[in-house]
Design goal:
By secondary structure, this protein is an alpha/beta fold. It is about 35% helix and about 25% strand. It has an eight-stranded mixed sheet, covered by helices on one side. A hairpin with a 6-residue loop joins strand 8 and strand 9. It is globular and about 60 Å long.
Length: about 350
């Protein structure tokens, strides 16, 4: 891939996920070039640029968006800033890859449709997991009937963080477990069922000091079956996804934070017995899902294709999140309203 063919990206802010994972991942790609980074502090921006070998640094987000050489922007800002800066980026004619959750409400997410279509840019949500080979393979196996009819998806995702100065614990900024990590099992249940839930029910426990959801569980009712998950910001770190069909089961060991330093594995059980006597393990070579996400998005720009998790999908995912919160308040089943 020639450097002229690569999409030139700018990054708004120096969030940890950008510095540690997304930028290095995209820099290793064949289709993506991180050409600039911006911070509200010019000195910080230059330090980040020097440390990450990025050519240009800007002391404001506006200055980066004004650079005609930048074709697309990656937005890892706090959740409440996602939509405002996605709009500004799109208005500047830039394609947008925004961290999840793309918005705080369905209405906010839908507000991006007009500017996207008017400016003829692509806007996508950063669910990098959809591009990882273990997820592509799992979806293919299920669609091929390897485990019979898929009937139930079970998910769990948790970590422990009770630092008051962490943005994940600030309710006004879109903090809490469902927004931060519960969005993953929701998104991937929809991805695997290849459908939308018709109704959901949720149970939410909030932190007495922060007001954020610290423990939440939900049931998503799909036309073909059910998906259940639990997420928490105050539990032992853990993650797992399982898919139960009428003839077998698939388990993804590290479904969300797949490492870029070691192989990943899925387990395929033919249901012979509860001891897993006939479990088959499939191993996937080491890869970086942030590299794959960046290249898939950049290739979609160059070839006018579809990005991995487009805006319409983000709207539908947020509709489920909203319905879970409504259910937690009403104590009843609620219908997602995208």
């Amino acid at each position: 891939m020639t450097s002229q063919r690569k999409v030139k990206w700018g990054v708004l802010g120096g969030a940890s996920i950008a510095v540690r994972k997304v930028i290095p991942g995209m820099q290793a790609g064949e289709w993506s070039e991180i050409a600039a980074i911006a911070s509200r502090d010019r000195v910080k921006a230059q330090k980040l640029a020097d440390g990450l070998n990025i050519a240009r640094a800007y002391g404001s987000y506006e200055d980066l968006l004004a650079d005609p050489r930048i074709e697309a922007v990656y937005i890892p800002l706090p959740n409440h800033l996602h939509v405002p800066w996605s709009i500004k980026a799109a208005e500047a004619g830039k394609h947008v890859l925004c961290e999840k959750p793309l918005s705080l409400t369905v209405a906010q997410a839908r507000s991006l449709l007009e500017v996207r279509d008017r400016m003829e840019v692509k806007i996508g949500e950063a669910f990098m997991v959809r591009t990882h080979p273990q997820w592509v393979r799992t979806r293919g196996l299920i669609q091929s009937g390897r485990i019979g009819e898929l009937r139930t998806i079970l998910g769990a995702f948790s970590y422990f963080n009770r630092h008051s100065d962490n943005i994940r614990n600030v309710a006004a900024w879109g903090g809490g477990g469902i927004m931060d990590i519960g969005c993953y099992p929701i998104n991937l249940s929809r991805f695997i069922f290849d459908d939308e839930p018709t109704r959901v029910i949720g149970l939410v426990e909030r932190d007495p000091d922060f007001g954020t959801d610290r423990l939440a569980s939900a049931i998503l009712h799909f036309p073909a079956g059910q998906a259940t998950f639990t997420c928490s910001t105050q539990l032992v770190p853990y993650q797992r996804m399982q898919f139960l069909g009428t003839k077998g089961r698939i388990e993804i060991e590290i479904p969300f934070n797949a490492p870029n330093t070691q192989e990943t594995r899925i387990l395929i059980d033919d249901g012979h017995d509860v001891f897993g006597t006939n479990v088959v393990m499939e191993v996937f070579p080491t890869c970086d899902q942030y590299t794959l996400q960046g290249d898939a998005f950049s290739k979609a720009i160059r070839e006018n294709g579809e990005v991995p998790a487009p805006l319409e999908d983000a709207i539908k995912n947020m509709a489920v999140i909203e319905a879970i919160f409504r259910s937690a308040e009403s104590g009843k089943w609620e219908k997602p309203q995208a």
